[in-house]
Design brief:
The chain has about 200 residues and is mainly alpha-helical. Helices cover about 70% and strands about 0% of the residues. The chain has nine helices and no strands. It has helices spanning about 5-30, 35-40, 45-50, 55-80, 85-100, 110-120, 120-140, 150-165, 175-190.
Length: about 200
C-alpha cells in the first residue's frame, strides 16, 4: 500500500527541492544539474521527483521564476519609496544583481532559452510577456518614458553587468565589486536620464 503524504509534507518536499535546486544552480549551472543531483540533495527518490515535476527543466524554470518574482516584489517596494530616481534605481539594481540570495549571475539568458526549448510553447510566450511587463513596470514606477530609454542599449549594459558578475576573476574580488558598482551607477544614470523631471 502506498504511503499517504499530507499536503504539508508535499510542500516541505517542494521547498527542499527549491532550496537545493538554487544551491545546485549556483554550484553547477543550469545545464549541468541533473534529476539525480536534485533527488540526492533533497533526499527523495527519483520516482518521487516525477510526482512533483515532469522534468528537471520544469523544476529549474519554476525555481528561477519564483526567485525572480520574489526579487521583483522587493524591487517594486524600493522603487515606490520617496527618493531620487537614480538612487532608487541604484538600490534596485543592487537588489537584483548583488543581493545575497540573487541567482542572476548563475543564470545566463542562454540558460533560459535552453529551458524554454524543453518546456511547452506557452512558457516562451509567458516569458516574453513577463519580461516586457517587468521592464515597463520598472520604468513606470520611476517616471521614465519607455521612448526615452533605448531597450537595446539597456540590454547591452545589463549583459555587461551580468558578464562581470558571473566571471571568475583571478585579479581579485575587490576589483570585481568596484567594476559592478561603477556599472550599476552608470546604468542607473542612463535610465534616470529618461525620468520626468
Amino acid at each position: 500500500m502506498p504511503k499517504i503524504v499530507s499536503e504539508r509534507e508535499k510542500e516541505m518536499v517542494r521547498e527542499a527541492m527549491h532550496i537545493k535546486g538554487i544551491e545546485l544552480i549556483r554550484k553547477k549551472g543550469v545545464k549541468r544539474v541533473t534529476v539525480e543531483d536534485i533527488t540526492i540533495a533533497a533526499n527523495i527518490g527519483k520516482g518521487s521527483f516525477y510526482s512533483y515535476y515532469n522534468s528537471k527543466e520544469e523544476l529549474l524554470y519554476t525555481i528561477i521564476k519564483k526567485c525572480e518574482s520574489n526579487m521583483f516584489e522587493r524591487v517594486e517596494a524600493m522603487l515606490s519609496e520617496k527618493a531620487e530616481v537614480k538612487e532608487k534605481l541604484i538600490k534596485a539594481l543592487k537588489e537584483i544583481y548583488l543581493a545575497e540570495d540573487s541567482i542572476v549571475f548563475y543564470v545566463a539568458p542562454s540558460d533560459i532559452e535552453y529551458l524554454l526549448r524543453k518546456l511547452p510553447a506557452a512558457a516562451a510566450d509567458w516569458e516574453a510577456r513577463k519580461s516586457n511587463d517587468y521592464f515597463s513596470r520598472t520604468l513606470s514606477l520611476c517616471g521614465i518614458d519607455e521612448s526615452d530609454c533605448d531597450f537595446d542599449v539597456l540590454a547591452y549594459l545589463m549583459n555587461a553587468l551580468h558578464f562581470i558578475g558571473a566571471a571568475d576573476t583571478p585579479s581579485g574580488e575587490q576589483g570585481k565589486k568596484k567594476a559592478l558598482d561603477i556599472l550599476v551607477h552608470s546604468i542607473a544614470g542612463y535610465m534616470a536620464g529618461g525620468a520626468k523631471q
